[in-house]
Amino acid sequence: VKYSTICVLGLGYIGLPTASTFAARNLKVVGVDTNPHVVEILQKGGVHIQEPGLRALVQDAFRSGCLRVASQPVEADAFIIAVPTPIFPDKSADLTAVKAAAESIVPVLRKGNLVILESTSPVRTTQNIVQPILEQSGLKAGRDFLLAYSPERVLPGKILQELVENTRVIGGVDRASAEAGRDLYAVFVRGEIVLTDAATAETVKLMENTFRDVNIALANELSRLAEKSGVNIWEAIAIANRHPRVKLLRPGPGVGGHCISVDPWFLVESAPGITPLVRTAREVNDAQPQYVASRVEEILGGLTGRRVAVLGLTYKADVDDIRESPALDVIARLSERGAVLSAFDPMAQEVSIKGRRADSVEEAVRGADCVLLLVAHEPFRAIRPESLRPIVRTPAVLDCQNAWDRAAWESCGFQFHLLGDGSRAITWNVEK
Ligand SMILES: NC(=O)c1ccc[n+]([C@@H]2O[C@H](COP(=O)([O-])OP(=O)(O)OC[C@H]3O[C@@H](n4cnc5c(N)ncnc54)[C@H](O)[C@@H]3O)[C@@H](O)[C@H]2O)c1
């Protein structure tokens, strides 16, 4: 192993699994986070992120002495930057954390070091933003230290597995930097390691998430059309996807998380005049919570004083992450129009909502006029409608995830609505 000490900046969903996976391979890792709360929890033996297997991995890493945490970077052979890259309200990239992280490396950067940016970033951030900051050390990228961009493409819920198994892309500011990155990640990556230049690697990451966003927008638009034309979109998609070259994605209440709902804006920002498709897809998906709120309004014939029980707050099923969650947007819109909300999510972190946070499905649903399923967490899929029928005020349901069985709900007297289903009957080919 060429690199035996690593400093990982940012101990979130990406940085903490990465740091502990390197530590599990016996590299000496110092994890750095500027949030004192994160450092404190980790130092006390806790883990602030819910991710299968992570707690045990982190605790083993501490026990072996290979991982420790700090609030400032220290000297190391390699530095990995995994800090947040959100967008400002005007949808432009907020690179504050990337710049601060790079600045914090400057005093400890030494000749021969490798620096890798993992944060999803606008194209040319590595060379135009990170490189000049690091060069304030007096060292030159390419000559004195190595610099590369390596995007992270793990799926929350499967981070530890995908970290190791996914194809890893490493874009160097020069060939030597890309090769150095390969040597580092080869410590644990079992997937293919593909080398390219930094700008291509940055582009690849943004294209991947934009591909998904555009295709989800298509599914959402088609699902609105299906409702108008008396068709069940889920049935239509199930059949269309039997075509050997068609793979429509799923409609839903919107797109959240801090990747797919954010990254396409990095492309739009860099060239607004030539990216109308990417922008429109974002707008279609961002309008979906509003669309869902209108569907509830239609179902109830008005929202003022009506009680809506919202199931699910996270941005997708079986994760605890509420960042950019469309569910929060749906709640805000329902509440603006006078609905009385109660919401339950067994996974979601603390978050203040316009309404009551219930502690169980029953508590959320009691007295409701409409049960609104926004996120198909496993326990929600298993809900038995007969257990809810006696406790609602009005038996109406809007399932935005195609998670529930219409016949089961209707047989206990619920008026059942499914997002994207204008037919209310045909589900011969739909698999739940
Ligand atoms: N979460 C994912 O599934 C995922 C997937 C692919 C890519 N990414 C990208 O990875 C990057 C990190 O995402 P995340 O989900 O881990 O974020 P996160 O918010 O979970 O964690 C980031 C951590 O960085 C810390 N931090 C902020 N500024 C810092 C600084 N200057 N020095 C040290 N620490 C600092 C924060 O306190 C936080 O704990 C983002 O660019 C994101 O777009 C995330």
**What is the percentage of strand-forming residues?**
5-15%
The helix fraction, in percent, is: 25-40%
The first-to-last residue Cα distance is 47 Å
Mean pLDDT across every amino acid position: 96
Question: How many individual helices?
Answer: 17
- Gyration radius, to the nearest Å? 24 Å
Major sheet size, sense and barrel closure: 8 strands, mixed
Main sheet strand line-up: 3-2-1-4-5-6-7-8
Beta strands, count: 14
Ligands and ions found: nicotinamide-adenine-dinucleotide
Would you identify the regions where 5 or more consecutive residues have pLDDT less than 50?
Answer: none
SS-derived structural category: alpha/beta
Could you name the key traits of this structure?
432 residues; alpha/beta; binds nicotinamide-adenine-dinucleotide
Structure description:
The protein is built from 17 helices and 14 strands. The longest helix has 32 residues, at 198-229. The model has no long low-confidence stretch (mean pLDDT 96). The strands form two sheets. Strands 3-2-1-4-5-6-7-8 form an eight-stranded mixed beta sheet, with helices on both faces. A six-stranded parallel beta sheet has the order 11-10-9-12-13-14. The chain is 39% helix and 14% strand. α13 links the parallel β9 (307-311) and β10. The two termini are 47 Å apart. With 432 residues, the protein is α/β, with parallel strands linked by helices. The structure holds nicotinamide-adenine-dinucleotide (NAD). Nicotinamide-adenine-dinucleotide is lined by residues 9-15, 32-35, 38, 82-85, 97, 100-101, 104, 118-120, 152-154, 156, 258-259.
